[in-house]
Amino acid sequence: MTTPARVSARADTTPPEPEPDLEAIRQQLGQRIRACRERLGYSQICLAERTGLNRSYIGALERGEHNPGINNLARIAHGLGIRLQDLFTKRPPAPAATQAAPQLVRDRSAHVRVNRTQFMQLLEQCAPDRPDLVIIYLARLGVDFHG
User: pTM value?
Assistant: First the structure.
Protein backbone atom coordinates (compact mmCIF):
# COMPACT_ATOMS: atom_id res chain seq x y z
CA MET A 1 0.00 0.00 0.00
CA THR A 2 1.36 3.42 -0.93
CA THR A 3 1.38 6.36 1.39
CA PRO A 4 -0.33 9.53 0.22
CA ALA A 5 1.99 12.43 -0.49
CA ARG A 6 2.27 14.97 2.28
CA VAL A 7 0.73 18.33 1.63
CA SER A 8 2.76 21.22 2.88
CA ALA A 9 1.12 23.06 5.72
CA ARG A 10 2.82 26.28 4.60
CA ALA A 11 0.43 28.65 2.90
CA ASP A 12 1.52 30.43 -0.23
CA THR A 13 2.57 33.92 0.89
CA THR A 14 2.27 35.47 -2.57
CA PRO A 15 -0.73 37.78 -2.63
CA PRO A 16 -3.28 36.85 -5.27
CA GLU A 17 -3.52 38.97 -8.39
CA PRO A 18 -6.32 41.49 -8.10
CA GLU A 19 -9.38 40.74 -10.20
CA PRO A 20 -9.30 42.74 -13.42
CA ASP A 21 -11.84 45.54 -13.59
CA LEU A 22 -13.78 44.19 -16.57
CA GLU A 23 -16.12 47.15 -16.70
CA ALA A 24 -13.16 49.54 -16.97
CA ILE A 25 -11.63 47.36 -19.70
CA ARG A 26 -14.88 47.44 -21.69
CA GLN A 27 -15.09 51.22 -21.22
CA GLN A 28 -11.51 51.73 -22.44
CA LEU A 29 -12.08 49.44 -25.43
CA GLY A 30 -15.25 51.33 -26.32
CA GLN A 31 -13.47 54.67 -26.07
CA ARG A 32 -10.72 53.33 -28.32
CA ILE A 33 -13.21 52.10 -30.94
CA ARG A 34 -14.98 55.48 -30.88
CA ALA A 35 -11.70 57.42 -31.15
CA CYS A 36 -10.54 55.35 -34.13
CA ARG A 37 -13.94 55.66 -35.80
CA GLU A 38 -14.09 59.43 -35.31
CA ARG A 39 -10.48 59.84 -36.47
CA LEU A 40 -11.60 58.37 -39.80
CA GLY A 41 -14.71 60.53 -39.90
CA TYR A 42 -16.99 57.48 -39.82
CA SER A 43 -20.39 57.49 -38.22
CA GLN A 44 -21.61 54.50 -36.25
CA ILE A 45 -23.79 53.61 -39.23
CA CYS A 46 -20.79 53.73 -41.55
CA LEU A 47 -18.74 51.47 -39.27
CA ALA A 48 -21.69 49.13 -38.95
CA GLU A 49 -21.91 48.91 -42.74
CA ARG A 50 -18.17 48.26 -43.03
CA THR A 51 -18.25 45.49 -40.41
CA GLY A 52 -21.63 43.91 -41.01
CA LEU A 53 -22.58 44.61 -37.40
CA ASN A 54 -25.64 46.46 -36.16
CA ARG A 55 -25.33 50.21 -35.49
CA SER A 56 -26.87 49.85 -32.05
CA TYR A 57 -24.32 47.14 -31.23
CA ILE A 58 -21.48 49.48 -32.27
CA GLY A 59 -22.95 52.18 -30.02
CA ALA A 60 -23.31 49.79 -27.09
CA LEU A 61 -19.68 48.66 -27.54
CA GLU A 62 -18.51 52.27 -27.54
CA ARG A 63 -20.39 52.85 -24.29
CA GLY A 64 -18.82 49.73 -22.76
CA GLU A 65 -22.15 47.95 -22.43
CA HIS A 66 -21.21 44.75 -24.27
CA ASN A 67 -18.43 42.24 -23.94
CA PRO A 68 -17.49 41.65 -27.60
CA GLY A 69 -16.21 38.36 -28.93
CA ILE A 70 -12.93 38.04 -30.79
CA ASN A 71 -14.69 37.64 -34.16
CA ASN A 72 -16.53 40.95 -33.75
CA LEU A 73 -13.36 42.69 -32.56
CA ALA A 74 -11.54 41.43 -35.66
CA ARG A 75 -14.38 42.70 -37.88
CA ILE A 76 -14.25 46.11 -36.18
CA ALA A 77 -10.47 46.36 -36.53
CA HIS A 78 -10.75 45.42 -40.21
CA GLY A 79 -13.56 47.95 -40.70
CA LEU A 80 -11.38 50.64 -39.12
CA GLY A 81 -8.38 49.62 -41.21
CA ILE A 82 -6.22 48.83 -38.17
CA ARG A 83 -4.66 45.75 -36.64
CA LEU A 84 -6.62 43.92 -33.95
CA GLN A 85 -3.97 44.64 -31.31
CA ASP A 86 -4.31 48.38 -32.00
CA LEU A 87 -7.73 48.28 -30.33
CA PHE A 88 -5.92 47.63 -27.04
CA THR A 89 -3.15 50.22 -27.18
CA LYS A 90 -3.08 53.95 -26.49
CA ARG A 91 -0.72 54.90 -29.29
CA PRO A 92 -2.08 55.88 -32.72
CA PRO A 93 -3.02 52.79 -34.70
CA ALA A 94 -0.82 51.55 -37.49
CA PRO A 95 -2.55 50.90 -40.80
CA ALA A 96 -3.64 47.30 -41.24
CA ALA A 97 -1.68 45.23 -43.70
CA THR A 98 -4.93 44.50 -45.51
CA GLN A 99 -5.72 48.17 -46.01
CA ALA A 100 -5.05 48.85 -49.64
CA ALA A 101 -4.67 52.16 -51.36
CA PRO A 102 -7.67 53.20 -53.45
CA GLN A 103 -7.61 51.42 -56.77
CA LEU A 104 -7.81 53.13 -60.11
CA VAL A 105 -10.58 52.25 -62.51
CA ARG A 106 -9.30 49.17 -64.30
CA ASP A 107 -11.72 48.84 -67.17
CA ARG A 108 -13.58 51.92 -68.26
CA SER A 109 -15.85 49.84 -70.50
CA ALA A 110 -17.19 47.81 -67.55
CA HIS A 111 -20.59 48.85 -66.27
CA VAL A 112 -22.13 48.43 -62.88
CA ARG A 113 -25.87 47.83 -62.75
CA VAL A 114 -27.73 49.55 -59.94
CA ASN A 115 -31.42 49.30 -59.09
CA ARG A 116 -32.56 52.86 -59.74
CA THR A 117 -35.44 52.79 -57.24
CA GLN A 118 -33.31 51.44 -54.41
CA PHE A 119 -30.46 53.79 -55.22
CA MET A 120 -32.77 56.83 -55.29
CA GLN A 121 -34.22 55.79 -51.94
CA LEU A 122 -30.70 55.52 -50.55
CA LEU A 123 -29.81 58.98 -51.87
CA GLU A 124 -32.96 60.50 -50.40
CA GLN A 125 -32.31 58.90 -47.03
CA CYS A 126 -28.67 59.68 -46.49
CA ALA A 127 -26.93 61.58 -49.27
CA PRO A 128 -27.43 65.14 -47.94
CA ASP A 129 -25.76 64.45 -44.62
CA ARG A 130 -24.19 60.99 -45.11
CA PRO A 131 -22.29 60.73 -48.41
CA ASP A 132 -20.06 58.06 -46.83
CA LEU A 133 -22.98 55.62 -46.93
CA VAL A 134 -23.46 56.21 -50.63
CA ILE A 135 -19.77 55.51 -51.20
CA ILE A 136 -19.99 52.29 -49.20
CA TYR A 137 -23.04 51.21 -51.16
CA LEU A 138 -21.33 51.90 -54.47
CA ALA A 139 -18.14 50.14 -53.35
CA ARG A 140 -20.19 47.06 -52.46
CA LEU A 141 -21.52 47.11 -55.98
CA GLY A 142 -17.98 47.07 -57.34
CA VAL A 143 -17.53 50.73 -58.22
CA ASP A 144 -13.88 51.77 -58.10
CA PHE A 145 -13.05 55.31 -57.07
CA HIS A 146 -10.05 57.22 -58.29
CA GLY A 147 -8.55 60.66 -57.93
Answer: 0.56
